Amino acid sequence: NAGVIQTPRHKVTGKGQEATLWCEPISGHSAVFWYRQTIVQGLEFLTYFRNQAPIDDSGMPKERFSAQMPNQSHSTLKIQSTQPQDSAVYLCASSLDVLNQDTQYFGPGTRLLVL
Amino acid sequence: QQKVQQSPESLIVPEGGMASLNCTFSDRNSQYFWWYRQHPGEGPKALMSIFSNGDKKEGRFTAHLNKASLHVSLHIKDSQPSDSALYFCAVSGPSGGNYKPTFGKGTSLVVHP
Questions:
Q1: How far apart are CA B17 and CA B38, in angstroms?
Q2: A-chain residues within 8 Å CB-CB of B52?
Q3: Whether the Cβ atoms of residue A105 and residue A96 lie closer than 8 Å to each other
Q4: Considering chain A, what percentage of its residues have pLDDT values greater than 70?
Q5: Is B93 helix (H, G, I), strand (E, B) or coil?
Q6: Cβ contact, residue pair A55, B98, below 8 Å
């Protein structure tokens, strides 16, 4: 079991460009979560899917961020017109289900730097 | 809205010493609590969970939960340099059936040899 896989590990974009981040959850896990981590804000929830359906996107900046889960083996987080304040580590996590006692398993993250 | 606060922000303990990390939460309906640990360059990894009031021990790690006091803590006995990491508390509970754990901002632990 390779764990949660995130690609790329590092991404540098220019201001105004688009960034697409990929996540492959652990096989058999039905829930996939996206978080953003910065020194100042800590771990911020962005969105999550259950059985590929979007359940809660309350943490997503509405205008430029979007997430999809086209199949059970991968999810994408897309940031349009990137801004320097989008620079952060983006973490993907999966869990067996969304029962409250299910542990989340995190990937290594994608470090996004917007110049 | 759930608020989770961790203290201290940073902690330095000598090798072999005891490290104590604290977490307070605001929602009295919270039911599920985890401690995660993150080493540099990695994602957080679940260390242990606690769901009932009292103590739960796993090896050198002991979690303590007091729901009435809105407090959960983690104690690391015989701390090792490899325990140096960022520790997060995560809290979730019934909120209209929507599952979304709230994480604290973390405690940075340094164990010096």
A1: 20
A2: none
A3: no
A4: 98
A5: coil
A6: yes
Task: Please report, to the nearest 10 degrees, the dihedral formed by the alpha carbons of residues A82, A39, A76, A24 taken in order.
Answer: 150
Edge-to-edge strand order for the sheet containing B19-25? B4-7, B19-25, B71-76, B61-66, B54-58
Nearest to A101 among B51, B94, B104 (CB): B51
Per-residue pLDDT reduced to its tens digit, B56-97 = 999 999 999 999 999 999 999 999 999 999 999 999 876 555
Within 10 angstroms of residue A71's Cβ, the number of other Cβ atoms is: 8
Looking at residue A99, what is its pLDDT?
73
For every residue of B34-83, DSSP letters joined together read EEEEE-TTS--EEEEEE-SSEEEEETTEEEEEETTTTEEEEEESS--GGG
pLDDT at B94: 67
Q: How far is A81 from chain B (nearest CA, A)?
A: 26
DSSP string, A39-101: TTTEEEEEEEEETTEEEE-TTS-TTTEEEEEEETTEEEEEESS--GGG-EEEEEEEES-SSTT
Q: Which of B32, B42, B106 sits opposite A108 (nearest CB)?
A: B42
Helix (H, G, I), strand (E, B), or coil: what is residue A26? Answer: coil
User: What does pLDDT average to in each consecutive run of 10 residues of chain A (115 residues)?
Assistant: 92 97 96 95 93 92 94 96 97 88 92 97
pLDDT at residue B96, rounded to an integer: 54
